[in-house]
What does this fold into?
Amino acid sequence: MRFADKLGMAWNSLLKRKLRTMLTILGVMIGVASIVTMMALAEGLNRQSMEMIEQYGGLRTIEVREGNGQNAQNSDASGASPSNDPTQYKLSDSTMETIKALDHVESVYPVLDFQAVIVSGPYHMTLYSGQAMPLEALRDMNWEFEEGGWPEEGDDLKFVFGNLVIEDFADSRDNIVYWNTGKPVDIDLMNSKMFTILDVQAYEAQKAAKSGSSGNTGSTESTGSTGTTDGQTGTSSSDQASGDGQQSTAPVVPKKYIIPTAGVLKGSLDDYMQYSWNTYCDLDALQRMYKKAFKNKVIPGQPAKKNGKPYKELFYSSINVIADEIDNVSELQTAIGDLGYQTSSNSEWIEQTRQQSQSQQAMLGGIGAVSLLVAAIGIANTMMMSIYERTKEIGVMKVIGCGLFDIQQMFLMEAGMIGFGGGITGLSLSFIICIIINKVTAAQTAVIPLWMYFASVVFAIIVSMAAGFAPSKRAMSLSALEAIRNN
Amino acid sequence: MGESVISAKSVYKIFKLGEEYVIALKGVSLEVKKGEFVAIVGTSGSGKSTFLNMLAGLDRPTKGEIIIAGSHIERLSEAELVKFRRDHVGFIFQAYDLLPQLDAVENVALPLSFKGMAKKKRTETAIELLKRLGLEKYMKHKPTEMSGGQQQRVGIARALVVKPEIIFADEPTGNLDTKTTIEVLHILQDVVHNEGNTLVMVTHDNNLASYADRRIHILDGEIVYED
It folds into this structure.
């Protein structure tokens, strides 16, 4: 018997009992809709937590910091003993190249942490969390700006402030900060005149010396009168604290620079983002600035040779490695760790979140599955009824030569069609429910994963056919003779 | 008229009813030749229907052998019996037993679809046959929209459509009035005599049996006489 003919017969017998067919389909529809909706809710939760991880530094990012070589897997023991070179596990451009050569690396960029002191009018702030990165890496963050934007390629050093940085300013006269008053200081980060001191240590030393030298001029460094303001990075002459004869080594008075602000990142004083407390700048521009400012001296934060001379190259604070896929993050992380560096990533967190969302999905799906189970029993019941009703008919078909398996297949097809109908309508129903949920919650609370569209229908068909299997078997094994006697 | 298409040799059928055994057939033997119209006549409970079912491959004898169209059907499995019936046997039922959701053409074409014939071809074959039986006007009618006589003519067409070697009919006129009964019997006679089919009919009515070429009288599971 041809497949299409069997399909047609199955379709006919469903049509013959429209109401019952509809009711059975309704059962499957509710079952499928509840499973799909539950799964969509779980998926929504999953995506939300993944987005959260993304906000906390990316799903595929591995942060590499300098190591002590503890984990290094030195295959060639013949080489120079690693302890000889104190810079071996520091992060340089050659480290970048080494990491780039590993498998599953999509991109690599360096980060140089820097500190500075910013002084503006009566206010000052020590900026501890400055991060210099290549412009490209900064742009890739896709952050939004409250004002301004990223600096351009080749610009002199410009800062980009996080939305909460301004809260760090303290009033130099009474040391009152934002946290005491709850009011932001009267500084416009974009336009106010601000002096930046790059050598924080020198600044602190000078300050300590000043407060130590009794009754000396109050806070001369905060007057801001000395800047030569030819626009950008003009070196300003600084006042010499020459008069302090008490100390044999007078602290070096740090230079002040005027460093313009390129932009302020989006957010109010109540919004916390990954970037909120940080200050960013272009790594290249910072390097040029450092070269100019510290010429042959050691740049703050950089290691010095034993003789106190600076190294030729710059060592980075960290290197951010982006893996090609989330699944490869932990493998790549291990590979970098084996090189002797310290690594950290969100992979464990991601893994945990995944497991959590999987069990959530399983639980919610299980709750939904209960109603599909009920629907499956409904199918079995309907099919059984249908077979009892059609005993005679089945018998006649057998007598006039309908193959046993053809009969079974026809019944399975009937069940499958019920599953298909219930699957499609159930999917549509849950699609609508998800839209409503998302409208009401004003978020992507329920997301039907793409594979679900296909899988739910297939699943409904399989469950229905499984429910129809026993009845179909029964129809097949009905004795033709008994069947035609049955009136 | 030489070869025999049905050959039953001392067929026994014993049913178990509770603790008791009921012997329905006590060594029945019968030969039917090609092109014969044979009537099996007997009262209710005589074993005539049991015998027919066995000849048609719906039931297996307890003992004895049945050879139909060259096959020992007592040795066939359930699935083989289905195939055997599909290829060699046509059936006419007392209650017509057409499928209610199908129209006349579809009902007649049904056995052909079991054989896997394409829809276009089997529909053509069915239409042609229905025309021959005078049912042009009822092609698209469902069974419930036809009279008993019309339904039975559709039933006869359904039995003939596969060009079977043997047609079995179990009280084919049992549900019909006298006039229609005679009509149907004429059709059956015509099918046998003009088209060379073999027909075995079971009936309890001697008058109806008189339309047949041979009458086998069964009583209490045994053939009592033949005329």
